[in-house]
């Protein structure tokens, strides 16, 4: 590969990674401040959990609508619009004086965060396919993981020394920075815009065509359920680790940074390994890891073995497994849809975020005095993904 081509791929990977950073900066940096935000808004921890569910719901709706819009008008203009919405909603969240307005702002921010995921996958699918597509997505996801290391620590430091509102103002600065990057460094990648992409009849037909693809729906559910286990941790862990086990905001940020580091290493290994052994084996190994992780955490909790490391170590294994499953499952799900990658990636994200939103909403109904409900949620999510892959996907691919 020539040096100019390597440079172009590096810049593209960096751009895709920046788009995927919407999620860690919008969510991961916020997590260490959850108890402080609850106190500042005179709200309960479960109400803050509902703000996360609102973020996931907005994310789901955003993914469903932004994909077709990107197929109709191109990737670049839709990326820029989502960046403006992200910046404004983040700033408004920092000005919130009530939990209701805060939840509303987070819902709007969720709509824009969806753009990072949907549009990065669409751009990657415009330019690559098969194993090379999986490698690019894995490398871009690794950049997102690096952000997941930095932003939780930053969030913990901010809430410890400044104020929780400053977290959202930093999100606004990030949005403006990426807006400039996309404006000056990104060229449109879609080969041919689809003028019918947002026509209701065409949209419904396209959704039906994609959703009835066995390959697509199976890989989407495989990725979606294992991701729900991740979002279960995100929803519950601030209360359990900070309120019950007494970890400081900075300490929580360090824990999440460690988990994100596991995710980064996992993606980098998977990105290299997939070229040698193929996507099927990589996903299979990841599925075994996440089920093992959920099982270990649940057994320890039932036996009454407490302490933060009974949560952190199994979750690290779970995060490592996700890095082998999600990028490759997403790549396989998108493979059949060269001419409608935006809509397909939108549906892919919609399914994942709806499952995660329902998971987070369900967990907000119970009182978390230990890790039992969290472990149960992670085990159930991972086991469903495991069954889908080994009992359905393997059967389809062997036909």
List its traits:
15 helices; Growth Hormone, Chain: A; 399 residues; 0% strand; single chain
What report would you give on this structure?
The protein has 399 residues and is mostly helical. The chain has one domain: Growth Hormone, Chain: A (Up-down Bundle), CATH 1.20.1250.20. Helices cover 84% and strands 0% of the residues. The two termini are 36 Å apart. The mean pLDDT is 83.
Look up the CATH topology.
Answer: Growth Hormone, Chain: A
CATH class: Mainly Alpha
Q: State the secondary-structure class.
A: mainly alpha
Number of strands: 0
Helix and strand succession? HHHHHHHHHHHHHHH
Biggest sheet record: none
Ranges where pLDDT stays below 50 over 5 or more residues in a row are none
Mean model confidence by pLDDT: 83
Describe the protein's topology.
Layout: H1 3-20, H2 22-28, H3 34-40, H4 45-73, H5 75-94, H6 99-127, H7 130-161, H8 165-185, H9 200-211, H10 214-244, H11 249-277, H12 279-302, H13 309-334, H14 341-363, H15 372-397
Helix pairs in contact: 1-6, 1-7, 2-7, 4-5, 4-6, 4-14, 5-6, 5-8, 6-14, 7-11, 7-13, 10-13, 10-14, 10-15, 11-12, 11-13, 12-13, 12-15
Short description:
By secondary structure, the protein is mainly α. Helix content is 84%, strand content 0%. It has one domain (3-185, 195-397): Up-down Bundle (Growth Hormone, Chain: A).
């Amino acid at each position: 590969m020539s040096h100019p081509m390597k440079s172009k791929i590096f810049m593209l990977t960096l751009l895709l990674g920046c788009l995927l950073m919407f999620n860690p900066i919008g969510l991961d940096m916020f997590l260490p401040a959850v108890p402080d935000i609850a106190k500042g808004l005179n709200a309960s921890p479960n109400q803050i959990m509902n703000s996360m569910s609102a973020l996931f719901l907005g994310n789901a709706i955003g993914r469903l609508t932004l994909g077709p819009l990107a197929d109709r008008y191109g990737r670049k203009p839709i990326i820029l619009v989502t960046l403006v919405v992200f910046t404004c909603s983040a700033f408004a969240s920092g000005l919130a004086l009530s939990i209701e307005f805060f939840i509303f702002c987070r819902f709007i921010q969720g709509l824009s965060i969806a753009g990072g995921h949907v549009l990065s996958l669409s751009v990657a699918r415009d330019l690559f396919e098969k194993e090379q597509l999986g490698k690019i997505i894995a490398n871009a996801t690794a950049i997102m993981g690096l952000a997941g290391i930095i932003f939780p620590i930053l969030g913990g430091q901010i809430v410890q020394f400044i104020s929780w509102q400053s977290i959202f103002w930093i999100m606004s600065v990030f949005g403006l920075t990426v807006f400039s990057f996309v404006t000056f460094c990104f060229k449109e990648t879609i080969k041919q815009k689809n003028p019918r992409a947002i026509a209701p009849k065409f949209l419904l037909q396209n959704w039906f065509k994609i959703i009835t693809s066995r390959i697509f729906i199976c890989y989407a559910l495989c990725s979606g359920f294992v991701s729900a286990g991740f979002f279960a941790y995100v929803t519950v862990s601030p209360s359990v680790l900070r309120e019950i086990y007494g970890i400081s905001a900075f300490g929580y940020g360090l824990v999440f940074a460690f988990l994100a580091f596991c995710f980064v290493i996992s993606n980098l290994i998977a990105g290299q390994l997939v070229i040698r052994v193929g996507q099927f084996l990589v996903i299979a190994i990841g599925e075994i890891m996440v089920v093992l992780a959920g099982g270990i955490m649940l057994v320890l909790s039932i036996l009454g073995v407490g302490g933060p490391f009974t949560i952190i170590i199994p979750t690290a294994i779970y995060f490592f497994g996700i890095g082998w499953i999600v990028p490759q499952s997403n790549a396989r799900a998108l493979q059949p849809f060269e001419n409608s990658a935006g809509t397909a990636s939108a549906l892919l994200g919609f399914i994942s975020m709806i499952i995660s939103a329902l998971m987070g909403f369900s967990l907000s109904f119970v009182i978390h005095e230990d890790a039992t409900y969290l472990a149960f949620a992670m085990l159930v999510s991972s086991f469903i993904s495991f069954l889908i892959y080994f009992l359905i996907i393997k059967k389809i691919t062997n036909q």
